[in-house]
Amino acid sequence: MVPRHVQLYRSILSEVKKSATTPGKRNRAITAQLRAIAEKGRQPENTQTLQDLQNALLFFRSQREYKVLLHRYNPTLDLTSEERIKATANRVGLDMPVTS
């Protein structure tokens, strides 16, 4: 059976990997910090560290889900203001006039 701190560490790394802007790449500094925290979780009297790891895992999962929902329900988020106006006009069935 895998110790709880190792399981949490692996889950957190998986979430960091999923949320990375470049697929498959992780920030080495974040990974090193998480490893140091997980190492503290090895000691049986250190239940606070396990709680911190669980909180970090919950945070990373929540942030990833938030990004997914934000893009799903606000598709014009990444557009420029001109593109956003055009997309909004198209949504209600209008065409923007051609300007030169």
Automatic annotation (TrEMBL):
Gene Ontology, cellular component aspect: mitochondrial matrix
UniProt protein name: Uncharacterized protein
High-level lineage: Eukaryota, Fungi, Dikarya, Basidiomycota, Agaricomycotina
GO annotation terms (biological process): mitochondrial proton-transporting ATP synthase complex assembly
InterPro entries linked to this entry: Fmc1 (IPR039196)
Top-level division of the source organism's lineage: Eukaryota
Pfam families listed in its UniProt record: Complex1_LYR_2
